[in-house]
Amino acid sequence: MKNLTRLQLEEGMVLAADVLNYKNELICPANTVINKAVISKLAMNSIMVVKVKDEIDMARTHNEKVNLMDSFKVFEANYNKYFPAYKSIMLKCVDEGEPINMALLMSIYNNIMSVVNTGEELLDYLKVMSHPEDELTHSHCLNSALIASVFGSWLKLSEPNINILVQAGFVYDIGKLRLPYRILWKPDKLTKEEYDLVKHHTYLGQDMLKRTIVDENVIIATAQHHERIDGSGYPDGLVGDQINPFAKCIAIIDAYEAMTSPRAYREPLNAFQIITYFEETIDTKFDGAILKPILAKIASSQLGLAVKLKDDRIGIISGINEDDPAHPIITLEDRTTIDLSQFRWLSIEQVY
Fold this sequence. Notes:
The chain contains 15 helices and nine strands.
């Protein structure tokens, strides 16, 4: 919202507050779209200054608002400044066999994070970032490294262990850079032969990282990030505690980053769609002890946001059910509340 003089007004702008005359009578209500007639009416009543909505005030969804924030624009510029350096380090390892300069990667991480205030803010920023198709594999890993710092802090890991998790986030998918792009981002279902090739990226990544001086957990997480605790993962079908704890974390980060990013066949999922997916896979695919604190933080970060329910009703997220974070408490437009844990079929279709 900004104050503008009458002479600065342009058609199409929207009033952000009621305009009253000197008798305290309503001249133009808030949300009036400004046109020549409105400007003339203001002149007739000697109104010199009015409140007008900024572009961010006109945004319809939370993501649109984030995209218009000055702080996001600073983050985006900073991210784009360091992205080429990250990509160069990765490609030199893949194409020329150079060891990865992990110290330089951590410097890139620190520089990007220097303009971020909170973990929740970072996740919002990453969700509205856009990347060319040929940059998606690189951005996926860079984003995963940044997300790793947030999830690691939510899990109350020590600073050395957060750094290990961040390093694993940078490189765990490096093997995919050896795969054909047409297969890696194919919108249709992969053939068995194509899927077998994709699965091989864990071995490729592990082999490439052996040339780099790095914590052993980073190499193991790279090899095991597609293992699942019920044994349904690959490449070795490991179960439970056979899987490295850092690999278990990276598996969650990898899935989260993929779900928050657009794909050819779907829009990015909202927070509660993501939580629902993870809740359905707790202690079968993903380790519940790691996953539950993360889901609780994701859910609580949505408090105060507007949502549209499956039955088209609109409301505000006013409470979170600790034991059922996918189904929060909603205050509807008529000020009644509804506990979605009691109406589990009533899913959240959109977060505003």
